Give the backbone structure.
Amino acid sequence: GVSLRDLIPDGHAEATVRLCIETGHSRTFKQPLRTTAKPGISHSLHAIRLSDGIGPVALLTASPSEPDDAVPAQGRIAERNLVLKQAMDASPSMIAVFDRRHRFIDANRAYRDRWQIPHDQDIAGVSLESVIGRDRYFIVKPMLDSARSDGAVTFEVNFEVDGKRPLLRSTAMPLRLGQDDSAGIIVAAEDITENTATSAALAGTEDLL
């Protein structure tokens, strides 16, 4: 016996439902509703005309919709992610993020250049092993596992890449997401071949002196 206007006082919903009954066309609209859980939250309402023994009636369903500021908030998150991506790409270090199973989440420009991954390729879900090769993968795997369980680990490797054997110093650290302290691994690597060669040359000069 409660009228629709008692539930939604502004009259818009009542007029929309009447129009649905008269025309037979379903209607979808947004309306703030006062619920016991969240008073005043916006809901999406959908009105459909049905027929019963006494004539046409309307079935009205309602479901909570996103707050009005949700879209701007999502835009800010997307903008922040873009800034972080550009910052990663600007770094000369090779940076990659992996999940627990050592599958890529993303990698920056320097990392992609090193392993000849196209800059526009979506590598999310691609295994590290498939990119660097099985032999190289099983060399670094213990360090990655240790980083995820024990904390940051620094190690050096000299993989052959394009006929060269650069010396890479890598730091692996756990990826923390919310309450999950070991959601994956972040790896940052730098080529220290030139630095090592320079240090060796200086050491040789000192021996001569």
